[in-house]
Design a protein that fits this description.
The chain has about 110 residues and is mainly alpha-helical. It is built from four helices and no strands.
């Protein structure tokens, strides 16, 4: 293989994406998820302290994001552990969704 063939194969594999940009996006996604999770915890804590209620919807969003992250990892990496973790997070999502529906009911 010559240099041009290697570069063409690399471009095809990376779909003409900049590797630095892709890595930056990956890191930004991790930071964004962490900040989102912390904000969710803060909102739920404040709601519990001041209103003595649970913000069920906030947890539904949080666990659905986590479940999706691990499901995508499981599909791409074909790892059984990732599927089990995704199932756990989707189970928690369902639990909090039921709590959310019941709290809306009254």
């Amino acid at each position: 293989m010559n240099k041009e063939e290697i570069l063409a194969a690399s471009r095809k594999e990376n779909k003409n994406q900049d590797i630095v940009e892709a890595e930056c996006l990956k890191q930004a996604s991790r930071v964004a998820y962490t900040v989102g999770c912390l904000v969710c915890c803060l909102i739920c804590t404040l709601q519990w302290v001041f209103a003595k209620t649970i913000n069920w919807g906030c947890w539904v969003v949080n666990f659905s994001i986590l479940g999706t992250i691990f499901l995508v990892k499981a599909i791409k990496m074909k790892k059984r552990h990732e599927i089990l973790v995704a199932t756990l997070y989707y189970g928690l999502c369902a639990f909090f969704a039921i709590g959310f529906a019941m709290s809306m009911k009254g």
